[in-house]
């Protein structure tokens, strides 16, 4: 395998690792490991097969860890956070957190909830006031238009 081909494989892996937000020390370890495997393999097809198996393993581990993290971290934090927000929404009849009109904190909470729904579709289950708040804020005409046309991003 040529040095040029090894470099392109290494660059491909770095892009995938950045996308998966793997810690730098792990990236370096795997980069060195995969570079060694690439030199030992007899063809690009062999390397790609090894790569595919390694990615399946990562996905399996992520799904196992996500279920446990959801149970141990997300759900207790959600209960505390959304319970706190619900108290404010029940005290204020306007549907906003503070006062009679939208504030930056309404925007912040609404966007946080919308983002969490992409990760955990059941995030707002059991919190109808928070869901109604999010929908009310995101229905503001200028904001709704911007949300529909903004670039897609996780954050």
Automatic annotation (TrEMBL):
Its EC number is 2.5.1.18. It is an enzyme of class 2 (transferase). One of its GO terms (cellular component) is cytoplasm. Residues 17-155 form the GST C-terminal domain. Gene3D superfamilies: 1.20.1050.10. One of its GO terms (molecular function) is glutathione transferase activity. GO terms for biological process: glutathione metabolic process. It catalyses: RX + glutathione = an S-substituted glutathione + a halide anion + H(+). CDD domains: GST_C_Sigma_like. Keywords: Transferase. SUPFAM superfamilies: GST C-terminal domain-like (SSF47616). Belongs to the GST superfamily. Sigma family. This is glutathione transferase.
């Amino acid at each position: 395998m040529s040095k040029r081909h090894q470099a392109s494989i290494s660059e491909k892996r770095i892009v995938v690792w950045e996308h998966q937000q793997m810690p730098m020390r792990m990236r370096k370890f795997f980069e060195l490991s995969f570079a060694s495997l690439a030199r030992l393999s007899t063809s690009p097809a062999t390397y790609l097969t090894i790569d595919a198996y390694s990615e399946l393993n990562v996905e399996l581990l992520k799904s196992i860890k996500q279920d446990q993290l959801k149970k141990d971290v997300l759900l207790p934090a959600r209960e505390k956070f959304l319970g706190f927000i619900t108290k404010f929404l029940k005290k204020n009849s306007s549907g906003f957190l503070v006062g009679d009109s939208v504030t930056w904190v309404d925007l912040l909470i609404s966007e946080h909830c919308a983002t969490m729904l992409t990760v955990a579709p059941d995030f707002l289950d059991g919190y109808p006031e928070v869901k109604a708040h999010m929908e009310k804020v995101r229905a503001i005409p200028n904001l709704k238009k911007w949300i529909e046309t903004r670039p897609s991003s996780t954050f």
